[in-house]
Amino acid sequence: MLFKRKRTNQIERQYTDIVAAARNPVLYPDYNVPDTPAGRFQMITLHAVPYMLAYGDVNDGKSSQTLFNMIFADIELSFREIGVGDLSVPKKMKAFMKDFNGVLQAHAAENSDHVMVTQKNVFGDEGHIEKPFAKYIQGLFDAK
After folding, report:
1. Smallest Cα–Cα separation from 52: which of 67, 38, 72?
2. Who's near 101: CB < 8 A, 6+ residues apart?
3. Residue 144: predicted pLDDT
4. pTM of the entire structure?
5. Which residues of 10-46 are buried (b: 16+ CB within 10 A; e: fewer)?
């Protein structure tokens, strides 16, 4: 039980770091990430994916699942706090989980271009990531 709690504390710290990074004000005005619930979700996803990939590299499914659960427990709470109705929450959660898993799979693909994946998910087909943001994104994946 001691090791499980230690692992959970480590993942809680990682989740705190993910949320803090996703709230970095530079992302929104300087890198043009939309300051919307969807844009913020994409930034949480962007910052969580390197951890998820690292867990996959060491075959640590329990830690990966724990982090995933923390992310989506917080998202569900956020939905409820902003007044999303009880009947709508499960539908929204399913859509966000599907999106998260799709982004994770795209980043996990062999020879994935993390900047292009992020560009598509944050800005769509017509968006463009400026060089400073591209460097920031690549740094997230190089560091893990």
Report:
1. 67
2. none
3. 62
4. 0.89
5. ebeebbeebbebbeeeebbeebbbeeeeebbbbbbbb
